[in-house]
Amino acid sequence: MTASDRPEVLGSSPASLSLARRIHTACERFERAWRAGGCPRIEDELQRLPEPEQAALLTELLPLELELRQGRGESVAAMEYRQRFPDFTRLVDKVFGGAKTDRRGDTLMSRARPDGASELIQEATIVASPSLSSQASAEPLIGEFGDYELLEEIARGGMGVVYKARQKSLKRLVALKMILSGEFASPSEMERFHLEAELAANLDHPHIVPIYEVGEHQGRHYFTMKLVEGSSLARQISRFCEDPYAAARLLATVARAVDHAHRQGFLHCDLKPANILLDARDQPHVTDFGLARRVEEVSHLTVSGAIMGTPSYMAPEQASGLRRELTPAADVYGLGAILYELLTDGPPFRASTVMETVVLVLEREPPPPSQVRPGVPPGLEKICLRCLEKAPRDRYASAAELADNLERFLRGEDVDGNGAWQSLRRWTRREPELVSRLGGLGLVAALTQFNYHNTERPVLSVHSMVMATLALWAVASIVYQMLLRRGFKSETVHLVWSATDITLVTVLLKVLDALQSTLLVGYPLLIAASGLWSRARLVWFTTALAEIGYLLLFLDHWHHPSWASSRAQYPNIFMAALAVTGFVVARQVKRMWALSHYYEHRPLI
């Protein structure tokens, strides 16, 4: 690979972090334009960056465009992208081939086409742990392989490669999966591989892809399974978005299959549209038990603290790396994430990096499906949101209970959902910036009103000015949150929102003549709060505004201050403290980004 063809591994240097921000902005702009019905071109986005940085941007934009196109039901082919990006052919091959840079998971299917070819459908899966390991990459094997004739490679992922094969003795087509590193596989890789085969082989259900044979040939371990001629659910999402009742029927069937696995003592741990195959009759088949485990066991193959799965679809307890605490409720969450995508054409959470997505899974709530796509039936939305509750105890107790509720919905009966308290909790996690401001402003307004009525000689004009400022602040916060909901550029909205916060704090301090009061704590609090948006530039912007706001108050108060006076050290100390606060918060944000890029580019187990 040439230097221009190699994606830059982003680190913690200022240049790398600056590039990461530009890439994040480009991805947001590209996806927003696509979902608005436009036809943005990757080539146009590449032209915005210098040539040495284009490979890093293409590494992010290419998988994003593939996902968006597949969501519309469009076919994608590597040859098309090789022709579009002749200078990045190796990078294109890695994206389509599922190299470690993209952490792509296996799918055991081939999509039937008139010319008999197969299309690879994949969905990103990560298997990251605190320890590094290397992996040999097996070259495609086409031809004789024991009792099998390997016809074509149909999937390649972090641990395995899957072929469409013909079993000569029985004259049937099968899907044959072998370890990616072939005869160089480590003992732990072989044990994990055989564990997957063992788990799937113990599941006999019409909607779970069955295992036929487990074997070894010339040092290469493999197992074969039913070849599903059709397409993955990932390619049919847009069709189900138009028919929520069809989505409910489909997911009820999948939930019954998952419940069968649970009753046999197994968890899937990686449920997502790419791991559900649709046959010619649109019947679903659950596949890829590569991350499955027994309910009562903690596999010694999993490193403590490992994060294994697909971030956009994994339950919070799984995203935390707490595999000892996984229960069937984790798969219920995965089913809810699939239902959410069927209803909205997008997963509950998706960010530009793995770590950002994991943080969203742990801390935020997705927008209600009806807010993303009007027309979603309320009962189905209630089912979906209950599946996506953060606490396992708040979800359906089993996949069977989920299936029962989906079937009740289809019959027009009432469904079991969570009450108003849970809805309020979801809102506080979904929009914490707005909730924190409204809560804080409401508390300040209540205390201000209390003090006004319990003061001997209250000044009505001052009280009215304070209450009006608080009301304006609340209205502005609601407006900014509405802009974010409607897809306005988040970085711009956050900058304006932060500027408004600092301005109104300064106005309140001016009205109350509180330059030397404890109310000055509002400035450092807003600097700290700006760090929650995870943008160092925004932190420094807020810090600079706080410094300017305080300086304006000081100059207005003293008119002609003497910086050599005995009291000059107090504003100096306060402004220095604001700068230090901004530095510490910005440093923490940069550290988070450095860790994010570290996990984004590390090898798989």
Short description:
The protein has 605 residues and is of the alpha+beta class. It contains 21 helices and 15 strands.
What does this structure look like?
- With 605 residues, this protein is α+β, with helices and mostly antiparallel strands.
- It contains 21 helices and 15 strands.
- The protein has helices at residues 14-35, 42-46, 51-71, 78-84, 89-97, 187-201, 237-241, 244-263, 316-319, 328-344, 354-363, 369-372, 378-387, 399-410, 420-430, 432-453, 460-485, 490-512, 522-530, 536-558, 569-600; strands spanning 109-110, 126-128, 143-145, 148-156, 160-167, 172-179, 211-217, 220-226, 228-229, 231-232, 266-267, 276-278, 284-286, 293-294, 307-309.
- It has a 6-stranded antiparallel beta sheet, covered by helices on one side.
- Strand 5 and strand 6 form a beta hairpin.
- Helix 19 packs parallel to helix 21.
- It starts with 13 loop residues before the first helix and ends in a 5-residue tail after the last helix.
- The relative contact order is 0.08.
